[in-house]
Design brief:
mainly alpha, Transferase, Pyrimidine Nucleoside Phosphorylase, Chain A, domain 3, 2 domains, glycosyltransferase
Length: 196
């Protein structure tokens, strides 16, 4: 089945209302999300896919399929450290408090725990204060490449880094305008923090 036929079939099954919507298989979720990330699916169908999954409530299998697709498009690099603390707070940020976890990486690195923190500038539904905003306000370079971030983490005198989604998964970052039009939280808000 070609991608257009598959997304048509998926949307028919997941967008039929709260009582009639059907779950999709892990592989179908992976193929659909991969097609969205590679630009094979138009913006309208991509938005319907994301909204319909949310409205029917995503299953673990669907979340896994989406995550597997995102990982295919992510610049994953092996970091030469024994352990790595990965801090991935909600990328939509905080509106009611300051995300204190943004201040943890230098402290943890000083204690001998290499740390990676990741995020993006702003995304729906909260458009809140993000790790990027805080690091930027502190004068920290928030536009390091994945390789530059890796080098900072491996450097025992530094031991931590922030890496932005536009560096490690550009196709996902390119969906931010669409996600902002969707307004509501989607499966991407759930799984994107797992791939930094």
């Amino acid at each position: 089945m070609n991608t257009q036929n598959l997304i048509h079939s998926i949307i028919q099954r997941i967008a039929t209302g709260p009582e009639l919507s059907k779950n999709i298989e892990t592989e179908e979720a992976k193929v659909a999300m991969s097609a969205i990330l590679s630009g094979e699916i138009d913006e309208v169908q991509a938005a319907i896919f994301l909204i319909a999954l949310r409205m029917k409530r995503e299953t673990m299998e669907e979340n896994i399929g989406i995550l597997e697709a995102l990982l295919k498009f992510t610049d994953c690099q092996k970091i030469d450290v024994d352990n790595l603390v990965d801090i991935g707070d909600p990328y939509s940020g905080y509106n009611r408090s300051i995300p204190i976890s943004a201040f943890l990486p230098p402290l943890l690195a000083e204690l001998g725990l290499p740390t990676l923190i990741h995020g993006l500038d702003s995304v729906s539904p909260k458009y809140g204060l993000t790790h990027r905003h805080i690091n930027q306000a502190l004068g920290i370079n928030v536009d390091l490449s994945v390789s530059e971030s890796k080098a900072r983490i491996e450097d025992s005198d530094i031991g931590w880094s922030y890496v932005d989604q536009n560096q490690y998964c550009k196709p996902l970052h390119d969906l931010v305008p669409l996600r902002n039009k969707v307004i509501k939280r989607t499966v991407l808000n759930t799984v994107e923090t797992l791939i930094g």
